[in-house]
UniProtKB/TrEMBL annotation:
Region (Disordered): 326-350
Upper taxonomic lineage: Bacteria, Pseudomonadati, Bacteroidota, Flavobacteriia, Flavobacteriales
Protein name (database record): Ligase-associated DNA damage response exonuclease
UniProt keyword Nuclease, yes or no: yes
Sorted UniProt keywords: Exonuclease, Hydrolase, Ligase, Nuclease
Native source species: Salinimicrobium oceani
Length: 350
C-alpha cells in the first residue's frame, strides 16, 4: 500500500501529542486537548484534562478510576468510528488489559499507532494483533538486540520458587511491580497453594477495577490493622514507590524482588537495591518489535520512546523508511521511578 503524496502526514507530532489534523483529534496527548483517543490506562498515555476521551470499553473503568469523572466513550476492538470522515478503530495491543493500537484511515491511506504493546500472550490482556498499514508508529522501549525475553511460564516458576524458598527461611516475599498491568499479571500466576497473597492499597484498588475482566486469585489488603504475624511467609505485591518506605518495616524479615524488563541489566537491580530481579516486561523485546513491524507490511516506521535512534537506524538498514519522533511517553521507565499513580492510597499505609 504505497503512501500518497501529501504536504502533511496523516499523523504528525506537535507540542501536545500525536495529531490527526483532518479529524482534529489527538492520540495519547500529553497536554490537554478537546478530543483524545487513548490507547491504554498508564499515566503517561492517559492524562487528565482532556474534554473528551475515546478508548476501548475495557479501559473506561480503568481511566475513570485514575482520572475521576471524565467524559469518555468506549469502543469494541475492530469497531469503526468516523470523525470528520477519518475512520478510526482499535485493535489489541497485548500490553495490559484494555490496551489498544489505533488504526487511522483517510483517503486510502492507513496509519497505525501502536501505543505500548507486547507480542507474548500473557493470559490476561487480549493478545497483540498485527494490523496492515502504510505507516506504523511504534514504541521501542527495549529496542536493543540485548533484550530477549524468557517465556512467562519460566519467569513465574522462578518467582514462585523464590517465594517458597523465602517462606522456608521464615521470610516474607515482597515483589514490586507497577500497580496497573504488571501487578495483575504477577497475581494471575502466583501459586496460592504456597501461602497468602497480600497487596499494597494502590495495587488492591486497581485490581478491584480489573477483576471483572480477569480471573485472579484472592488477595488481602494490608492496612494499619494488619499484624506482622499474619504477613510472615506470605507474598506481598507492592508498587515500586513502596520500596524503602516505612510501610514495609512491619514485614521484617523479608526479601525483595522486582519484575521488570530492566532487570535484564544487572546494574538496574543494584540501583533499585532489590534482592532479586525477575525479567518480565509488558513491552516487546528486540525480536518482538521486528516481527511486529514486518507483519504490518508497512513502508514507513516512526520510532518513539525507548532506544529509538538505534532502532530507527537498524530499520533503515533493513530497507524501511524509518525516523524518530520525540514524545513524553515513559515506556517501562515508570516502573523504575517512585512516582506517578503508584502513590495511590499511600496515605492509608503505615
Amino acid at each position: 500500500m504505497p503512501l500518497k503524496n501529501q504536504k502533511k502526514p496523516l499523523l504528525c507530532f506537535d507540542d501536545k501529542g500525536i495529531y490527526c489534523e483532518p479529524a482534529g483529534v489527538y492520540l495519547d496527548p500529553w497536554k490537554p486537548v478537546d478530543k483524545a483517543i487513548i490507547t491504554h490506562g498508564h499515566a503517561d498515555h492517559s492524562r487528565w484534562g482532556h474534554k473528551q476521551y475515546i478508548t476501548h470499553h475495557t479501559n473506561v473503568p480503568i481511566i475513570k478510576h485514575r482520572l475521576g469523572e471524565i467524559e469518555v466513550s468506549g469502543k469494541e476492538y475492530g469497531e469503526t468510528f468516523s470523525i470528520n470522515n477519518v475512520k478510526f478503530s482499535f485493535f489489541p495491543a497485548g500490553h495490559i488489559i484494555g490496551s489498544s493500537q489505533v488504526r487511522v484511515e483517510h483517503k486510502g491511506e492507513v496509519w497505525v499507532f501502536s501505543g505500548d504493546y507486547k507480542t507474548e500472550d500473557d493470559g490476561l490482556a487480549v493478545p497483540f494483533e498485527p494490523v496492515k498499514c502504510d505507516a506504523f508508529i511504534t514504541e521501542c522501549t527495549f529496542g536493543l538486540p540485548a533484550f530477549k525475553w524468557l517465556p512467562q511460564e519460566q519467569v513465574m516458576n522462578d518467582i514462585n520458587s523464590w517465594w517458597q524458598q523465602n517462606q522456608s527461611e521464615g521470610k516474607t516475599s515482597i515483589l514490586f511491580g507497577y500497580s496497573l498491568g504488571k501487578a495483575q499479571r504477577l497475581l494471575k500466576f502466583l501459586d496460592p497453594s504456597i501461602g497468602k497473597i497480600f497487596t499494597h492499597g494502590a495495587i488492591e484498588n486497581m485490581t478491584e477495577v480489573v477483576r471483572p475482566f480477569a480471573e485472579l486469585p484472592e488477595t488481602t489488603r494490608i492496612t494499619r490493622e494488619t499484624k506482622k504475624e499474619e504477613i510472615k511467609g506470605g507474598m506481598v505485591l507492592a508498587p515500586p514507590s513502596a520500596h524503602g518506605s516505612t510501610w514495609i518495616r512491619k514485614m521484617v524479615p523479608f526479601e525483595t524482588g522486582m519484575a521488570s524488563g530492566w532487570m535484564a541489566f544487572r546494574g538496574a537491580r543494584r540501583r533499585r537495591a532489590v534482592d532479586r530481579g525477575f525479567v518480565l516486561s509488558d513491552h516487546c523485546d528486540w525480536q518482538g518489535l521486528l516481527s511486529s513491524i514486518k507483519a504490518t507490511g508497512c513502508e514507513r516506521v516512526i520510532c518513539t520512546h525507548g532506544y529509538s535512534e538505534i532502532f530507527s537506524r537498524f530499520l533503515n538498514e533493513q530497507g524501511y523508511d524509518a525516523r524518530t519522533a520525540d514524545t513524553q511517553y515513559e515506556g517501562e521507565l515508570a516502573e523504575m521511578n517512585s512516582k506517578s499513580e503508584d502513590r495511590d492510597d499511600e496515605n492509608e499505609q503505615d
